[in-house]
């Protein structure tokens, strides 16, 4: 598994977008919660105030932290069927075996059909 960590200097970091859950509280206040980032929320008397407090909280938090991007390459898995594909290509008995299987299936189908008629 290959793992690549990308970091950006603070001046060239891409803009980040976040999903925010805005909820009216029973006491009449509004709570804005940053989805995917635990314990990052803002509480205010209006939606705008709650989002502003959330933004301030996030900015304060990011002053002592950094965001990195992980790129993980999935392991390459070989298809297990490829190991046996064509195994019997040149086997002279392979066609004979297929004919035997087909004949046996016809016999089973006939027996099943007969049982259904008798039922």
Structural descriptors:
2 domains; alpha+beta; 2 helices; 119 residues; 35% helix; two-stranded antiparallel ribbon; three-stranded antiparallel β-sheet; Double Stranded RNA Binding Domain; single chain
What do you see in this structure?
This is HicB-like antitoxin of toxin-antitoxin system domain-containing protein. Helices cover 35% and strands 20% of the residues. By secondary structure, it is an alpha+beta fold. It has two domains: 2-73, Double Stranded RNA Binding Domain (2-Layer Sandwich), CATH 3.30.160; 80-118. The chain has a three-stranded antiparallel sheet. Strands 1-5 form a two-stranded antiparallel sheet. A hairpin with a 6-residue loop joins strand 3 (30-34) and strand 4 (41-44). The longest helix has 25 residues, at 94-118. It is elongated. The two termini are 59 Å apart. The mean pLDDT is 86.
């Amino acid at each position: 598994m290959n793992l690549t960590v990308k970091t950006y200097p603070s001046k060239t970091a891409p803009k980040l977008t976040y999903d925010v859950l805005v909820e009216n509280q029973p006491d009449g206040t509004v709570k804005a919660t940053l989805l995917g980032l635990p314990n990052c929320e803002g509480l205010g008397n209006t939606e705008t105030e709650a989002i502003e407090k959330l933004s301030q909280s996030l900015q304060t938090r990011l002053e002592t932290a950094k965001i990195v991007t992980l790129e993980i390459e999935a392991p390459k898995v070989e298809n297990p069927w490829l190991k046996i594909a064509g195994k019997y290509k040149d086997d002279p008995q392979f066609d004979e075996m297929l004919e035997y299987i087909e004949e046996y299936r016809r016999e089973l189908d006939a027996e099943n059909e007969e049982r259904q008629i008798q039922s």
